[in-house]
């Protein structure tokens, strides 16, 4: 199968039908050899990172947009532009293979048209790029609503830097399981298989290693045996900030796929009980898979964190992790489809959901207990403003320092994408009065 045509199919499913890339991409990749698999991925990620720009080029070069049954060809053309602008594929090969993609999509009659558009692009691209760079949405390849929100929150210059980072490829981070090795020991094992790595900048983030170059997980020493897991450095801070102690009852209220559940158990194997809840039954299967691979135990419950009375009538928790559903605007580097699948109106809905989860979980926290609120968002509404309004509404809640090392916070910690090479994340630690 033609890799350009496969990428066009996936892109059509994501952009026109609202499927997530993580759903659509694996379906077409299943029967491909590793090289073609990687190529389809590069085309899909690349086009999604530059979508409005490529769309603009297409609009400028075609009299009428391709619609309906021909829509896949629109994305095939974008895959063509992407190769010509951002890859080292020689232009004759990029054009030839893309034109052949039309046949694979059963639109052989339109091969000539595609050839013409791509060749015109080669001639006119410099002028088109200059025009595109005059508009922020085309320059930074983010939807207008998100550009506005980021500029309002961070100012123009910092928003531009964030959007530039969002368009880069994220590094692969590992979490070393101290039950088996120290980080230094595991780093040496990685060296032996020629996988150099760097340690995280935060001293307390002491399980985190960033690989110089991403790799297949099965090439990682002891992956199947649970020696190591893949988890971004910012996400790893959650278990350190939660700080679970021996004999405590812990709730991970939005747990799937379970990265923070298992990290918490790796750091503190002697807790009384870990309860891992999620509203998505399919994603919960992954929590159990992670627990099994790492040989850890938790009580896994399918439930709605905003209605804990439906699934919990036991004692109150010592610590609760609320890794709330959010806009995921901190992880756009890893999920370039997010910005096109989300709408501005989603943010207010998410803020309402987060608020109801926070309020409900607070009732299940012991006096003196700790709730760690986390999101992978970089929007203040979901983060410091959410926490501020929570603190205003609860006289028994206090914002406390995240850890001994990160103790100067007044608003929690907002990490921006690529800060110390990590994802964008937000943390706030709340304590209930005794
Ligand atoms: C950011 S993800 C959690 C990631 C997870 N903590 C980890 O580290 O692997 C947010 C999770 O919230 C879940 N979720 C969304 N609404 C929920 C609700 N009302 N109650 C419980 N879980 C919910 C989603 O299914 C999703 O798995």
From TrEMBL:
Q: Per the UniProt entry, what species is this protein from, by scientific name?
A: Psychromonas marina
Gene3D superfamilies, alphabetically? NusB-like (1.10.940.10), Sun protein, domain 3 (3.30.70.1170), Vaccinia Virus protein VP39 (3.40.50.150)
Identify this protein by name.
16S rRNA (cytosine(967)-C(5))-methyltransferase
**Which is an annotated GO molecular function term of this record?**
methyltransferase activity
> What is the active site of this protein?
376
Cellular compartments annotated: Cytoplasm
- Reaction catalysed by this enzyme: cytidine(967) in 16S rRNA + S-adenosyl-L-methionine = 5-methylcytidine(967) in 16S rRNA + S-adenosyl-L-homocysteine + H(+)
In the UniProt record, what gene is named as encoding this protein? rsmB
Please state which protein family the record places this protein in.
Answer: Belongs to the class I-like SAM-binding methyltransferase superfamily. RsmB/NOP family.
Q: Which UniProt keywords apply?
A: Cytoplasm, Methyltransferase, RNA-binding, rRNA processing, S-adenosyl-L-methionine, Transferase
The protein's job, in short, is: Specifically methylates the cytosine at position 967 (m5C967) of 16S rRNA.
């Amino acid at each position: 199968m033609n890799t350009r045509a496969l990428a066009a199919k996936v892109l059509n499913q994501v952009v026109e039908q609202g499927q997530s890339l993580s759903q659509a991409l694996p379906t077409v990749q299943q029967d491909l050899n590793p090289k073609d698999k990687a190529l389809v991925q590069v085309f899909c990620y690349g086009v999604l990172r530059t979508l409005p720009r490529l769309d603009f080029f297409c609009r400028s070069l075609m009299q009428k947009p391709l619609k309906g049954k021909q829509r896949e060809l629109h994305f095939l053309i974008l895959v063509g532009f992407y190769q010509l602008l951002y890859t080292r594929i020689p232009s004759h090969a990029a054009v030839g293979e893309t034109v052949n993609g039309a046949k694979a999509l059963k639109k052989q009659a339109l091969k000539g048209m595609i050839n013409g558009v791509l060749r015109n692009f080669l001639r006119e691209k410099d002028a088109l790029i200059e025009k595109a760079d005059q508009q922020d949405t085309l320059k930074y390849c983010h939807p207008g609503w998100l550009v506005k929100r980021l500029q309002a929150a961070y100012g123009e210059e910092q928003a531009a830097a964030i959007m530039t980072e969002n368009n880069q490829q994220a590094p692969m981070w590992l979490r070393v399981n101290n039950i088996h090795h120290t980080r230094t020991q595991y780093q040496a094992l990685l060296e032996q298989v020629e996988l150099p790595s760097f340690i995280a900048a935060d001293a307390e983030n002491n399980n985190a290693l960033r690989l110089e170059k991403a790799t297949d997980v099965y090439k990682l020493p002891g992956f199947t045996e649970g020696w190591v897991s893949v988890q971004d450095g910012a996400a790893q801070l959650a278990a350190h900030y939660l700080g679970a102690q021996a004999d405590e009852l812990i709730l991970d209220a939005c747990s799937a796929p379970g990265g923070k559940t298992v990290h918490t158990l790796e750091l503190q194997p002697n807790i009384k009980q870990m309860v891992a809840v999620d509203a998505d039954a399919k994603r919960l299967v992954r929590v159990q898979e992670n627990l099994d691979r790492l040989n850890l135990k938790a009580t896994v419950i399918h439930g709605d964190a905003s209605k804990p009375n439906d699934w919990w009538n036991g004692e109150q928790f010592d610590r609760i992790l609320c890794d709330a559903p959010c806009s995921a605007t901190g992880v756009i580097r890893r999920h370039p489809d997010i910005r096109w699948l989300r709408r501005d109106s989603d943010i207010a809905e998410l803020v309402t959901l987060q608020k109801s989860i926070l309020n409900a979980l607070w009732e299940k926290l012991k006096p003196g207990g700790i709730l760690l609120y986390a999101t992978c968002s970089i929007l203040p509404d979901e983060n410091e403003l959410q926490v501020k309004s929570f603190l205003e509404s609860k006289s028994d809640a206090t914002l406390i320092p995240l850890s001994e090392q990160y103790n100067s916070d007044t608003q929690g910690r907002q990490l921006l994408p690529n800060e110390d090479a990590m994802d964008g994340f937000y943390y706030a630690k709340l304590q209930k009065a005794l």
